[in-house]
Amino acid sequence: MAGPRIIEILLVEDNEDHALLTADALDSAGIPGTTIRVHTVIDGESALAFLHRRPPHANAPRPDLILLDVRIPDRDGFEVLRAIKQDRSLRTIPTIVLTTSDAEVDVARSYELGANEYVTKPVSAAAYARTVRAIPRYWTEVSTLPPKD
Length: 149
Known about the structure:
This protein is an alpha/beta fold and 149 residues long. It has helices spanning 16-27, 44-51, 77-86, 104-112, 125-142; strands at residues 5-12, 34-41, 65-68, 95-99, 117-120.
């Protein structure tokens, strides 16, 4: 008998409160037979180091999903998104922009750069948690994640 399905999620978020709320919501998503592991980095350079398994992330797993804020330090989320979608080894990882911005220009730019989904963070903690819990459910129960390398 196989063990639980493991979904590795890379969360790129510099706001500590949002990171904790997101990780808690993902932990409580309650997808039967699935364990969700959240790996959090706080800036664009760390995100790319994680994805390319550069120190200090040499043993990082390949994420099944990336949750990416666009307002992060070093390299902003748009630069990270561009780098992901231009890299043959990374472009198939579903990348979801999860941000406070609801500006049409940010939405359009995200999709132009290859985002698979754009989610504006709700203001209330309860709505935020509901929204975040829905993300892995969609990508595991409705959609099909690409195979792991």
